[in-house]
Write a structure and sequence with these properties.
Layout lengths: L1 E5 L5 E9 L5 E5 L2 E7 L4 H10 L1 H13 L12 E4 L2 E9 L7 E3 L2 E6 L5 H31 L5 E5 L6 E3 L4 E5 L7 H13 L8 H10 L3 H15 L3
Helix pairs in contact: 3-4, 4-5, 4-6
């Protein structure tokens, strides 16, 4: 839910409020702006006082986000896309029929009647990404589940703007399809992170020990993911 508060300086801070089963309030800057994760029963007034208290930090982070913002995708011939950490070029061609997307190293080729309609191109490309993501992530999940010694959990794709993955009490894992754009080791890190929640549903020292047991370089990958995040949210 969208909210905003006005600071004494006259500036407004807009934020998205997500209430969850948690004990503390968390503030997160994403491509969407400020997201506040809050306990379900916390008072709105108290929440706003916390946001106001952190106003300087929030405004500084929002300014940095704005500076680092990636140009919007045009969804036209020649656009640059990302796939497994590599830049690929979108090629669109006129055809009387809508053909299956063809991927060759460095190029993603579309042939369709409405090849010059950005919304049609975007829809088809995103469908392709989601299909590839499900296949790619399933393979990685199975591999690392075997390494961890647990049954391969059910996998679902996520379209979340504020998180890369999640694991629920039913032992279902959701991974953001946009991760397919990231280098393989970063995808592996997110997969291992969520698999570790099958053993530890928290972020305790025990949890990180489980992550390290199947992905020792998790700290470096976590930092890299933050750097990659703006690029992954262009689409």
């Amino acid at each position: 839910m969208n909210h905003s508060i006005q600071l004494p300086s006259g500036e407004k801070i807009h934020y998205i409020l997500e209430r969850r089963q948690r004990r503390t309030v968390g503030l997160k800057i994403t491509q969407e702006g400020l997201i506040v994760h809050a306990p379900k029963r916390i008072a709105q007034g108290y929440l706003e006082s916390l946001v106001a208290e952190k106003a300087n930090w929030i405004l500084k982070k929002l300014e940095a986000r704005s500076t680092n913002q990636q140009p919007a995708m045009q969804w036209q011939n020649g656009d640059q896309l990302l796939l497994l950490g590599n830049t690929i070029t979108l090629v669109t061609k006129q055809d009387n029929r809508s053909r299956a997307i063809e991927y060759t190293p460095g190029f993603l080729q579309l042939a369709m009647p409405n090849h010059d309609e950005p919304s049609a191109v975007a829809r088809k490309v995103l469908q392709w990404y989601k299909k590839q993501a499900l296949n790619d992530f399933s393979r990685r999940l199975s591999l690392f589940a075997t390494k961890l010694g647990v049954p391969t959990p059910a996998l679902f794709l996520s379209n979340a703007r504020s998180r890369w993955g999640s694991c629920n009490s039913k032992k279902e894992i959701r991974l953001n399809w946009r991760l397919l754009q990231a280098p393989p080791h970063i995808i592996n890190y997110v997969v291992c992170h969520e698999l570790a929640h099958l053993k530890e549903m928290n972020h305790s020292a025990n949890f990180w020990a489980v992550v390290a047991s199947i992905f020792p370089e998790y700290k470096a990958a976590e930092k890299e993911l933050k750097t990659w995040s703006p690029k992954l949210h262009v689409i």
